[in-house]
Amino acid sequence: MIRILHTADLHLDAPFVQLGDKAGQRQDDFLKTFERLLTLAIKNEVHLFVVAGDLFDHSRPDSGLVGRVQAGLKRLADRGIVPVLIPGTHDNVIAPDSVYRRHEFPGALVLQEPSVEEPACIKVQGTEVFLYGFAYRSSVSEDALASLRRRGEDGLHIGLLHGAREGSPEWDYRKKDLPFNLALLKGLDLDYVALGHYHEFEVLSDEGRIWACYPGSPEGKRFGENGPRHCALVTLAPRSAKVEKLLCNTRTLDERTLDLGGCPGEAEAAAAIAALGNPDLLLRLTLTGVVEAPLDLVRLQALLAGQFFHLDLIDRTGLYDSRFARRIEDEQTVRGLFVRRARARIGAADAEERQVLEEAFREVLVRFRAFGGGAP
């Protein structure tokens, strides 16, 4: 029996352009999470540290970052823990100057041939462990999935696959994503397949047996990868795998909705949003409800500076029947005419058109207010 820490999709050196001046800090978060994974591997006395692709976000990461990764993997190797890596879709080996062609990773086993001629074999506590993995190349990896098939009965047989499971909520067929299904995995007859590519934790089991696992991204890269993030601690025996989730993320992403119905102004709206604040939280917040005055999201962001690591506001509030809109509607002005016609059009629209019209209506009312149309 051996223990494995299985991770994938770390996406080190991702750019995070949308975070502005906090992009560098977020990149540091991802490196901290990598280092936390190393610590978890040591703490749990694992034998293998498996990264099933996309250790890096692209194939030409910063050389200083590569040095930090090399040092971290050597730290494991020096303690008798064997790092095992395969390239993914982001950090692929297609380019001649890709990271796995330019750099060595001392102490680590990097499986980067286009298919498995023979599995790599190492000894762990007297047991032979056979490792099956490859780096996809469109011209020479046609039968690469079949090359993962178990070669013998003795020892432990572990596959590494950066691929897309058919039927998954994240399913998106592309040839380079190496599409597979559970029946194919079972046909490989491996003791465990360490998967990467999809960013949510998922255990693939059937007939009372765990065949494979996606550990998901250990740090949320984009909204949708919300909440706690994990790696997989795998206890492996011949044709028997036990998987445990270990928490590992540095910061958390979340998406919520906040009803601001009846909110009289921006100060009150800011206070309601600030109540959700956490300096380690990246939050996408959708604002709903009928408000009494239009919200200026730029001003709200300024009022909330420091309450969140990052705040993304989406305005879905209604102004259609607000006091502000009704007051302007009574004016015998161009803007009064606009409000009357817009409200009539919105009232007659179907649900899909209404959403578009209300977004435009909000935008115009924010401008009206900015140029002298203050709320009552």
Automatic annotation (TrEMBL):
The record, for InterPro entries, names: Calcineurin-like_PHP, DNA_Repair-Maintenance_Comp, Metallo-depent_PP-like, Mre11_N
- Cell wall biogenesis/degradation as UniProt keyword: no
Q: Which GO terms describe its molecular function?
A: exonuclease activity
- SUPFAM superfamilies for the chain: Metallo-dependent phosphatases
Q: What name appears for this protein in its UniProt entry?
A: DNA repair exonuclease
Transmembrane keyword on record: no
Q: Membrane spanning segments where?
A: none
Taxonomic placement: Bacteria, Pseudomonadati, Thermodesulfobacteriota, Desulfuromonadia, Desulfuromonadales
Q: What are the record keywords, sorted?
A: Exonuclease, Hydrolase, Nuclease
Q: Where is the Calcineurin-like phosphoesterase domain?
A: 2-200
